[in-house]
Structures are given as structure tokens and as C-alpha cells.
Amino acid sequence: MTRISWKGALSEHPEHDTEQAYIDRAYERLDKLREKAMERAAEHARESTRMFGQGYDRDVSVGVALKRAAELDIGDESIIFGRTDATAGERYYIGRRNVAAEDNTPLVIDWRVPAAEPFYRATGKEPLGLAVRRHFLCRHRALVALEEEHFGDGTDLGMAGTGALLAALERPRSGTMRDIAATIRAEQDHIIRAPREGVLAIQGGPGTGKTAVALHRAAYLLFTHRRQLGNRGILLVGPNRLFLRYIGRVLPALGESGATLVMIEDLVGLDGVPAADSAAAARVKGDVRMIRVLESAIAGLQRRRARDALLSFEGYEVPLAARDIEPALKSLRGPRDTHNAKHSIFRRRLATRFYDRYRRIVTEREGRTAALVMLPRKAGEQAIRAEPAFDEVVDEIWPLMTPMDLIGQLLTSREMLRAAARGILTGAEIDAIVRGDPDAWTPGDVPLLDEARVLLGAPVRERSADDEDDIDEVETYAHVVADEVQDLTPMGLRMLGRRARHASMTVVGDLAQSVGALPPRSWDEIIGHLDARRGARVEQLTINYRTPGSIMDLAVRVLAVAEPEMTPPTSVREGGEPVEIITGPVAAAAQTLAAEHRATGDGTMCIVASPSMLDAIAAATGSSADIGAVVATLPVTDAKGLEFDEVVVAEPAALVEESPQGLRALYVALTRATRRVRIVHERPLPQPLR
Known about the structure:
This protein is an alpha/beta fold. The chain has a 7-stranded mixed sheet with strand order 1-7-6-2-3-5-4, sandwiched between helices.
């Protein structure tokens, strides 16, 4: 049976006051622990630094104490969100942090410990040893309501914690994602606690919580495998800056700071991508055939014929004929080692040949006194390699290349590109990717830069730090988490695979929401471009918690035309406000709706518009891409992965026409709302909306 004290008077549940007193006790202890951590930090900061090394030790101690204090700071979130009573007598309060009493008995156990699993996974048919489960709804430190479930008779209790879940779903959005530790569902918990080895792919439709699941999985892995993940950490890759800002508070709220949040261009050291690819260029650059093009371009650098060279050294003119240089080049051509590693080898061999020539010249000119004026071989070759003019000769024959040098030269030289792509790309494909400005980097260039870094290799010869910034070894992580991977090209997916030190990854997406240049047809296709040497598995999230049924019904009609083979998730929230369709000037209608929402609305509104209409609608509504504002205006590509209380879909026909994937963009736009969707249009609606 289930007993709920959720919407009625709290006095209806006889243990409300007892539970509130327990919550108060947990907060008092949490405050005390945080106060002690701050006191320790202050004490360490006052410690003497007179002895050598004490300053470093003090700073480390202060940092550790401050980190502990930060971990104990949960802000406005509740410390406890549930309780389990086992048939064997054990009772646990489940919450965001482990909190122990002064005698070390647990007051609260962290939601990630094994003892907390029954709170999320127990069902009427499989109670996992539970007799009673309670879900708490707290506002700040006050217990507002509680929901109680009794196990034991094998009855299916339905979805656990329905009241707590619906209360969380109905809260207004604020422009940043909240953690879902209090309302994790059984199918989500199964994925969160899955083994970290290999590639775990999570397929989840709109509103299934796949992003939240990936973040909570990161928090779980950091907590459970802290020793293994501590040094290498977790890399979390998001599709854009808005998305990273949106999810940025989740892990800190869960007490974790050991993850690095980046966009994919951050992995190659770019500050941004100022230009955009055409749809045709994006398809070509994302195709794995570009690997062969890059290999051919590098081989082209190595097929140069040597020319006569002259070096002024120790007061002598030292010439070196091309026929004497060519053997050193010929021995390097082949598959062994990378281009930049061979540069170092060639540099040493050329210095030896210059020294031998220098020795002959000195001997011929000085005769018996040659040994007195000649530098010994080791010192002589070192001195030759230190000559700037020598490096000019080396770089002319076998250039040390950075990825930016290679890709910049390749994409701006039609002749070089045509030679490298012969038999690989068509003339039209070459025309699509060639450009005039070598620094006009685009999203499609990012995986090419990363691939070039691997093919070229890091330089062995020391140069300045600035020279080596772009060609360092690839940094790897103990675990990689990536969201919206269905929009990454095959070349982009290869980038992710390189970052997983032990091929340990969690990748998240929805094939039905693919709006990228090369949409995958299956998860096997995605996994095939990752490093899956330690195995791979695909998990499904099937329940939509975000989108009310009235909105999802219309979105399903769109999906049935866009991708009839794909199955949408089932919406847990039946009913809801019907989708409203408004005919008239789009910018004016959006202006009216935005003003109405600012005056009377609760939560956030997003106007989703096509690229060609963004500026006009933003100007009319006084909105921008700020997802923290009451009203934001975004393209589909930036809105994907986010959620808002209300969504206005502006001119669906334009959305469909201007997206490479057509109706899939409309499906994405319709499924961003938690409460209400309104469609404004002047042009005829796409067929599924009629």
C-alpha cells in the first residue's frame, strides 16, 4: 500500500514532526562540520612559514580544508530527501552528503553508496529487503510533505515517489539544470551505477533525463572510484557554451569538482570558431575519408626534393649539394614514426653531413693546423644545430609542422588540396571545403586539427613554449562523458575516443534529435568511431518526464514523418495545456507573447527561431541568448538539450527549411517545454502540424 501526505495538511501524517526534528538535527551537524572545516583552514593559514617548504605544506592544508568546507555547502537544496526501513531493522536517511554524528553513527548516507540503492530500485514485486520507503519534499530546511510506500504483499506500487517527482517537475525553471538526486528513477539508477569499464551509450528521447543521468553517473564514478579517477579525472564534453552554463551547477551541487567541462574546440586549444561551414563543407570535413587526405598531404611534404644548401659556420662557407642531402631524406620516407619525429632525425643527420663537409674544408685549407682550429665532432654538430640558418635549411626541406599550419595551408591552397585529395574527394567536395582565410576556423576544422596532431606527432626537438602549444601530446582522462553525440561527425567521435585513457566512456544522445551534418543511423555506427576495445553496450531511457502529453502527442506526429522507424519515449505527465497555434506576423506575435510572459508568467520562456529570423525576433522581443533571462531567443542547435517552462516555436516552415535535417529540428523545438507550447506562423505549416 501507499500512504501519501502530499497535498493535504501535514498533520495528517503522524510522524511529520518527528521527521522534521531529525532533519533539523542533520542540518545542525552539517553546519558544525562545515564550521570546523573553515576553522581548520584559518588555523593552517596562520601557521608559520619560516622553515623551507612549510609555505607549500600550509597552502595544501588550507586548500584541503576549504575543499571540504565547499563539499559540505549544499546551498538551498535539501540535505535529506528520503528514508528506507528494511525488514531486517536497518533504517537509512538518504541525502546529498554523508553526515555522521559525533560518535560517527550515520545521520545521512550519500545517495551514491550501495546502501542507498533500494531507495531508487525497490518495487512492490522486488522490494530489495525494504518494508517502508519515504520520499521527502523540503523547501530549504522545512519538511513540506512526505510520501510513504509500504512493501511486503507483492503488489505493484506503480512508479515510486510519484508525488516527489511531479512536485519537482512542476517547479519553475531558472535557466540552469538542477540535480535529480532526490527523484532518480529505477531505470536511471541502473545506468548511473553501471560499471565504468568500456563504452556506455545512453539512448534517450526528449525529457528522459539523459543529461542528468550522465552528470549523476559522473558524480557517482568520482565518488566510487576516487582513487582511480583522482589523478586523471573526468572530461565532460558539451555541444555549446550555453549547454555548459546550463549544466555547470549540477556536479558542484552534488559535491564534486573533479570534472573538466569543455566544448570540443577547447580540446585543440582554439579560443573559438569564428566562421561557419556550409552544409556541404560540414559533411566533407566530418567524413573519415579526410584521414586519407591528411595522410596524403603530409606525405606530400616529405616528397620534396632537396636543393643545394649553404651554411656560414666558424668563419667558413660550408656548401652541401642536394645529392649529399637526398640520402638522409630517402631513409626517412616510409610509415615508421610521425612526420615531426622524423624532422628531429633528419635534423641530426643533416648536422652530421654539414660537419663532415666543414671538416673537409678546414682540413684542405688549414693543412697540419686543422686539428687546432677545428671543433670536435660532438661540439661541432651541437654548434651547427644551434645556428638559426641551419634551422632555416632544415625547415625548408623537412618542415616541422603544427596542426594549424597543416590544416591552414591545406584548406587555402586549391593546388595542395587537389593533390592530397586525388582519388579520395570529388571536385565538388574540394570546392566545398577550400577557403581564402587560413585563420577562419570552423567547427568542422576542429576534428581535422586533432587528427593532424596525431598524424604529425609532437616535436622531439625543443622549441619555445609558444611553438609547442599547438602540437603537444593529446591529454587523456580516466573517463569521458559526452552529450548530444548524435550531432558529432565521425571525425568528431574519433576525437572523443582519443581522450579516454582506458577506453572508459559514457556517451549520451537521441538518434531522433540528430540535426548535425552526418546523422547516424544507429548506435553501432557511433560506437564504431569510438575506442571500444574494452567493450560497449547501449542502454535505453524510455520515459519522458519533461513534456506533457498534450505537447508530446503533436511532437510524435512530427517524428512519425521525420523518422518513422524511431520510437518516442512515453510521457509520464498526461494531459497538459493544448498546443496553441497563432497565425499572423511572427515577430509581432512573439513580441506580444514575450510581454505577456514577463507580466504574468512564472519561470522561463524560449523563442525557438530559424537562423534567418533570430535577429528580427530578438529585436522585437527585447531578448537574447541569455538562458538565465525570463525570455530567451535561440536557434534549434542551441536550444537542444535545454528545457524551459514555455516555448514559442517561430515559423516552423523556416525551421524545417534551414536545418540540414528538416523535420527533426521541429521535433526538437516542440519538446523543449515543461508546461506550454505556442506556435506562431505566417507561412503554411509543415504537413505534420496541419
